[in-house]
Amino acid sequence: MKKSVRYLGAVVAALFIGTAAPQVFAHGDVVPQAVDTTGLKNLGADWQAANPYRKDKTAIRIGDSAFNQNCARCHGLGAISGGIAPDLRYLPLGDEGDEVFMQRIRKGAVRDGRVYMPPFEGTLSQEAMWAIRTWLETVHED
């Protein structure tokens, strides 16, 4: 009797993990954290096409913190992905990488109705997004 109760418990646990875990641990369930952009030039309402903070030390500091608060859960500490999401150290540098980065962080990614990355436009400011991009360029690898 005890074996069958343990077996039943294991089956129930497996079913729970198999059905509930994807909803709990899937991409897109991260609650964005506010980013204090004090010290950065205000960019206004028009979205910049290229990173206005490139190599700015204040932006790098803010971007490092913002990445850890909002991105590291999926993209890994130091932007070193564990395979859940793309390794952002390999984004192209300069304007080409800026375009790819801003498109994805602003609009997110949904495929077949599944959220792979939530959109951050309307949640993070343009200044916070560009600060993250500025920091990412400091950990870039070829």
TrEMBL record:
<keyword id="KW-0408">Iron</keyword>
<dbReference type="Pfam" id="PF13442">
    <property type="entry name" value="Cytochrome_CBB3"/>
</dbReference>
<keyword id="KW-0349">Heme</keyword>
<protein>
    <submittedName>
        <fullName>Cytochrome c-550 PedF</fullName>
    </submittedName>
</protein>
<dbReference type="GO" id="GO:0046872">
    <property type="term" value="F:metal ion binding"/>
</dbReference>
<keyword id="KW-0249">Electron transport</keyword>
<dbReference type="InterPro" id="IPR009056">
    <property type="entry name" value="Cyt_c-like_dom"/>
</dbReference>
<keyword id="KW-0479">Metal-binding</keyword>
<keyword id="KW-0813">Transport</keyword>
<feature type="domain" description="Cytochrome c">
    <location>
        <begin position="58"/>
        <end position="140"/>
    </location>
</feature>
<feature type="signal peptide">
    <location>
        <begin position="1"/>
        <end position="26"/>
    </location>
</feature>
<keyword id="KW-0732">Signal</keyword>
<dbReference type="GO" id="GO:0009055">
    <property type="term" value="F:electron transfer activity"/>
</dbReference>
<dbReference type="InterPro" id="IPR030991">
    <property type="entry name" value="c550_proteobact"/>
</dbReference>
<dbReference type="InterPro" id="IPR051811">
    <property type="entry name" value="Cytochrome_c550/c551-like"/>
</dbReference>
<dbReference type="InterPro" id="IPR036909">
    <property type="entry name" value="Cyt_c-like_dom_sf"/>
</dbReference>
<dbReference type="GO" id="GO:0020037">
    <property type="term" value="F:heme binding"/>
</dbReference>
